[in-house]
Each structure stands twice: as C-alpha cells, then as structure tokens.
Amino acid sequence: MFVAAPLLLTDFRLGLLAKYLCIAMVAVGICLAWGRGGLLTLGQGLFFGLGGYAMAMHLKLADAGPGELPDFMVLYGAAGELPWWWRPFESPVFALSATVLLPMAVAAVIGTLVFRRRVKGAYFAILSQALAAAFALWLIGRQSTTGGTNGLTDIQGFFGYDLDDPVNQRTVYFVIAAALLALAALVRQLIHSRYGELLVAVRDSEERVRFLGYDPALVKLVAYVVAAGAAGLAGALFVPAVGIISPALIGIVPSIEFVIGAAVGGRASLVGAILGAVAVMWAKTTLSEEFPGAWTYFQGLLFVLALAFLPGGLASLVRKVRERRAAGPADHDTPPDAADTAGTRSAAVSAKSPEEVTA
C-alpha cells in the first residue's frame, strides 16, 4: 500500500498522506501506553512538539546559512546573536538525536515524579494534558526566539534537499512510511515480549504485581517513555512533510485528536490504531471543509461513542465478526438432537456421585 500510494495519488494528496502517517506514529505509541498499559496520555502534543521544534530549529538554521539568524528572529527584532539554547541545534547529529531523546528524557522525568506518587487514571490524563497546554503557552510567549503563535514556518530545505521539489517530497514520504513500519515493528516486539505481559498485568492489577516483586512504576515508565519517543519522531518528520511547526499543532486539541484516532481504530491493536489515526485525520480534512464549525463537536462525539459502545475500536468489531463467522458453521454442523443428547448426558454424569461414575 505504501509503495503504491505515490503512483495513485497526486503530489498534494501524497503530502496529506505523509502528514497522516506522522499522526499514526503517535497512535502507535498510544497503543502501547494506553492500549496495553492503561495510561490515558492526553498530552502527547508536548512530546510531538519537542521533536518537531528540535527538527525545525536545525532546518531554520540551515536555511539561514552559517552565522546568520533565522528570518523570524530578524523580523521580530531579536538580539544580534543566536540564543544560547539554539546553538547546539546547528549540529545535524545533535538535532536528529534530540528529536527522539529530548522527548524521552522529559517523559522520564515527568513519569518518575508521577508514577512514584502513584498518580493514575483521570488525574494522570488531566496532568498530561495540562503539561501540553503549558508548553504551548510557553512557546507563544517567546515570540522572538520560538516564532510565537506563528511558530517556525517557511522551511525550505531538508538536509540539503529542496522541499519544493516533488521528487524530494516523495522521498520524505518514503522516509516517513519506513519510520512508521520500523516503529510499529518495535512496539509489536515489546507487546509480545515478557515486558508486554507484565505491562498488561500492571494495568489489570497493579498491587498484585507489586507483591510479586516487580516495580509497577518502572513498568509504566518504560511504556510512557517509548510513547514519548514515538511522538517526538512523529513531530520531527511532520516538519519536512508540512513545512511548519507551531503551538496550534501541539496543544490540547491536537493531543486529544491523537487519542481519538487510536480509540476509533482500536487502541489495543497496532493496525487498528494506525488505520484509525489515518481515517480520523482524513475525515477532519474532508469534513472540516464542509462543516468547519461542527467538526469539533463531531470529533468529540466520535470519541465518546467509541469509548462507550466500542471500547476496543473498529479492530474489535472486525474480530467479533470473524469469530461469529467462524463459530457459525460449527454450530450449524452439530445436529440439535445430538447437542441436546450431549447436554443431557453431561448433566446426568455431573449429577452422579464420584463412586457411581467409577462404577
């Protein structure tokens, strides 16, 4: 499917698909943290933004040239020199590492403080959402160094390649698709490993796991950090795919959209989470053009309906249909009389004492 997309879609639609696949990467991390670990992460926009700004800062410095300030700093009247915390991002190695390691480091600090205090459930969800909102507000308040409300825009190049060239845009798409597949393979390995079983055990009965000698806080921390790294990678690749990163893409609303995609598709299924994220983003692009004022309400209703009536998402619905179809022929092949006779014999045997059965 990923290989055929460039042949079937226009350059504009291919760019949209690349954007959707970035959101699907966030859903993969949510599948691990929420679907398997029960951690409702409503603040993934924080880590998405950290990865996105780390990548965008390097690309803006590369576009400006050696010793020059990015265009928005000149426009907003910044000081004559580059801020100290921008300078490490001149190195491509540092910038690429920071896109994943910085969100994971921040998640490790937050998770250690939160999970050691046994904060969970709705409290954890609200706290994670508040952190995303605080980060967006911090970015808005530092216009001369972060671009403020506009963010970092008009990104022209990607490690020496012109992003206006359709050929290079296709290359970016393939990079995003390959990263998504690699990330899904990694998370799938974690889910089906001993750690994945332990994560489910912590979700279902944290106290029992603690009595068995394991540290539930550490188990949850690993899932939270991996999900943060996935969101950071998604944010980093989102920048060359779209050419912009701004606070509007990382606040409360985007963080909820990440979760809605995973919930609709199936938060416990990797394939379901990926397809759900792509489907929800496609619906947002399509329906928001027709109903710009009503889309937000529809999106919220979709989330509520998915949690209330289909907790497992569309993936569980497909599985139930397959199970029903597989069970149908077996039930049909069993004669009613035979089934009744078997049930009668079973009841008669169970009614006898052990001595009578032995005799």
Q: Overview of this structure, please?
A:
- With 359 residues, the protein is mostly helical.
- Helices cover 74% and strands 1% of the residues.
- The protein has 17 helices and 2 strands.
- The chain has helices at residues 5-8, 11-36, 44-64, 71-75, 92-116, 122-141, 143-146, 166-191, 194-204, 206-211, 216-242, 252-265, 270-290, 295-309, 313-333, 336-351, 354-358; strands at 157-158, 161-162.
- A two-stranded antiparallel sheet has the order 1-2.
- A hairpin with a 2-residue loop joins strand 1 and strand 2 (161-162).
- Helix 2 runs antiparallel to helix 11 and helix 12 (252-265) packs across helix 13 (270-290).
Short description:
With 359 residues, the protein is mostly helical. The chain has helices at 5-8, 11-36, 44-64, 71-75, 92-116, 122-141, 143-146, 166-191, 194-204, 206-211, 216-242, 252-265, 270-290, 295-309, 313-333, 336-351, 354-358; strands at 157-158, 161-162. A two-stranded antiparallel sheet has the order 1-2.
Large-scale geometry: globular
End-to-end C-alpha gap: 65 Å
Q: How many E-type strands?
A: 2
Strand content: under 5%
* Low-confidence blocks of residues: 332-359
Q: Major sheet: order of its strands?
A: 1-2
The level of helicity is over 70%
Structural class of the secondary structure composition?
Answer: mainly alpha
Gyration radius, in Å: 25 Å
Q: What's the number of helices?
A: 17
Give the averaged pLDDT, no decimals.
86
Describe the sheet with the most strands: 2 strands, antiparallel
The SSE string, one letter per element, is HHHHHHHEEHHHHHHHHHH
